Amino acid sequence: MEAVEAVVSTQSTWKQWYQRRVHGGNSGAGNNWAKGHYTEGAEIVEQAIDVVRKEAEGSGHVQGFQIAHSLGGGTGSGLGTLLLLKIRDAYPDRLTKTYSVYPSPKVSDTVVEPYNAILATHQLLENADQTYVIDNEALYSISVNLLKEDHPTYSFLNYMISQVQMGCTASLRFAGQLNGDLRKLGVNLIPFPRLHFFNIAQAPILSPKHSGYTKLFIQELTKQVW
Asked: What does 169-224 look like in DSSP terms, one character per residue?
C-alpha cells in the first residue's frame, strides 16, 4: 500500500487529491482474501470509512458509491468487499456499484486468484446493487489484437477501464431523458436484486495515441458495440 501511495503521489493529478483522502496500510494481503477481509484489511477499514464519510458529508446529494477493484488479489477482493459491506451498513439507503476486474487463467499471476474471485463474488451478490464485470483476459486481448499494444501496461489497462466508467456514468453527469440517476439505471437493467452483474460493451475503442486523428462513423460504432 505504501508503494501505491508513492506512485500516486508522483502523478500530475496528485494536487487534486488531498493527502487526507488517501489512506493505506503497511502491508498487503498477500493474495489472500481472508487476510484482506478479516485481518490486515479489518485493521484499516475504519480509517478508510472515515475518509468516505468525510467526502459524503461534503457532498450536497449523495446518490451512491462506486468501488473499482480487482478480484484476483487479496486486497482488492478482501478489503474491497469489506469496504463495500461497511458502506452498506453506514448508508443503507444509498446505492453501491462496483467495477470488478475478474481474473483469467491465461494472464493469472497466482494460483489462488479463482478462490479470491469466488469468495468476493459472494459478497458482491449480497452487498452490491450494480456490478460491472470486467474480464482481465478481454482487456489484454483488446489491447494486443485490436489496439496493437505489444506490451500493455497497467496504466493503459486502467485507461480502458476509465473509458468504460465514463460511459456508464455519462447519463448521471449530463442532462438527458434516459437513466438520469443510479436508481433509474438499476430499475431499467436489473430484473431481480441478486441478478445485478452487467456485461460491458464500449465503442469506440481507441488507443490514446490514435484518438486525435481517427474518423468515426455510425457503422463502425455499431459494429464495435455488437
From this structure: THHHHS--SS--SHHHHHHHH-SSTT--EEP---S----TTTGGG----HHHHHHH
pTM: 0.85
Over its length of 226 residues, how does the chain's per-residue pLDDT go in tens digits?
Answer: 544 555 555 556 556 665 667 777 777 778 899 999 998 888 889 988 998 998 898 888 888 999 999 999 899 999 999 999 999 999 999 999 999 999 987 777 788 999 999 999 999 999 999 999 999 888 888 888 888 888 888 888 888 898 888 888 888 888 777 767 888 888 888 888 889 999 888 878 877 777 677 777 788 778 777 7
Asked if 194 and 174 count as a contact pair (C-beta separation under 8 A), the reply is no
